[in-house]
Amino acid sequence: MKKKIICLLIIMISALYANTYIVNPNGLEDFESIVEGVNYLMNNQIDGKLIVTPGTYYGSVTWNTDISHISIQGYNKNYCFVQGSFQVYGTSNEETDYIKNLTFLNTSNPICNNDNGLYLVQNCRFTNCSGNVIINNSSLRLIENIFYSNDCTTIIHSDLQNQLPSQAYLLIKKNTFDNNTTIGPVVNVDGMGSLFIKENYFTNNEYEYNLGNWGDGSMINITASNEITTGDIHRNTFFINEDSYLCDAMLYIDNSYSSAVFSINGNSFLESISNSAIKYISNQVSLQTQYFHQIH
Question: What is the value of pTM for the model shown?
Fold first, then answer.
């Protein structure tokens, strides 16, 4: 019955998209691996969608969105596993360039987004990954992902120092960060045009001091080496997290290069070990309606 439902869903999705291809690890469909599917689209300069059926997929993927716009969508992240990294290049930042519904396992630097290539990562899980789980050097939207039990440098490392503020956009929304250990911030952002960190859940994370870098032991570190035109951090929940060295705040912001107001609104800081909840070096920060309980 399950196989019939999967086949029906694949047929329905295929009918909605031209150039839709099915990836199956047993060689029963168009491609046997995600690498094979991406290479086919790139080599033929075809825009297309890859539907990934249940199974485990190996190998590293590289694609340039200026050559091919590619959508990679798993049937269900609970059944579609990837042990390999994705390197994405390009300047287009189109809505069709996305990764959805996959679980990345036992991989170093699983996703690296360069130039403005990848538009969206949604509803994926990252487990037992190392390095920087998400490396972002361009605009990106991270929505409804789960980052669980990773032992790494950072979960999200976004470096936009070389981007024009008007061309840079980062949205981190409705993600869960659970039981991770990092030697830097869980989220590190350096240089940003428009930054939105909304409605995320951080729990049971341990983040360490990194020799004075990246906010001296903060869970979220934001350093604007170029101007932040819009900064908005609201309705996030921080619950039972630990700064191993009690060096700095859970949320650290240095927005001193910017004249824009940085809005911090409606966040909850609960039962965590940290030197403080919020610390900022900024020209203008708007703090509204935070909730604090047992921060020590």
Answer: 0.89
In angstroms, the CA 255 to CA 281 distance is 6
**Strand ranges across the sheet with 111-113:** 61-64, 86-89, 111-113, 132-136, 154-159, 187-190, 220-223, 249-255, 276-282
For 69: left if phi > 0, alpha if psi spans -120 to 50, otherwise beta; the answer is beta
| Residue 111: closest CA among 144, 126, 143, 133 | 133
Length of the chain: 296
Asked whether the predicted pLDDT for residue 181 surpasses 60, the reply is yes
Three-state secondary structure call for residue 7 = helix
Residues 6+ apart with CB under 8 A from 227: 165, 193, 257, 258, 259, 260
User: pLDDT tens digits for 270-280?
Assistant: 876 666 778 77
**C-alpha distance from residue 135 to each of 151, 176, 187, 285 (Å):** 15, 17, 11, 27
What are 21-64's pLDDT values in tens digits?
999 999 889 999 999 999 999 999 999 999 999 999 999 999 99
Nearest to 219 by CA among 185, 262, 183: 185
